[in-house]
């Protein structure tokens, strides 16, 4: 699994630390044993985490994408 790969973890850190780069990605929900990299990403002050419930996983949600892509500053809640 890539979450345990040091080259992947370093690439994630480098990408998220780049001020001119915006990332739209997915992380697993909080359940079971916590994953260090996921907890680190969730805890970043420049990250906004959206929770999408099961009914919306079947339908594209351009509203979610537009909100996150055009947000001037992303913050964790």
From TrEMBL:
Pfam families: NTPase_1
GO-annotated molecular function: ATP binding; ribonucleoside triphosphate phosphatase activity
Organism classification: Eukaryota, Metazoa, Chordata, Craniata, Vertebrata
Keywords on record: ATP-binding, Hydrolase, Nucleotide-binding
Protein name: Cancer-related nucleoside-triphosphatase
Source organism, top-level taxon: Eukaryota
């Amino acid at each position: 699994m890539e979450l345990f790969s040091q080259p992947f973890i370093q690439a994630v850190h480098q990408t998220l630390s780049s001020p001119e780069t915006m990332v739209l990605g997915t992380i697993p929900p909080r359940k079971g044993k916590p994953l260090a990299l996921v907890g680190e990403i969730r805890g970043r002050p420049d990250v906004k985490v959206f929770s999408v419930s099961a009914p919306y996983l079947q339908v594209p949600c351009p509203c979610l994408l537009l909100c996150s892509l055009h947000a001037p500053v992303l913050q964790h809640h």
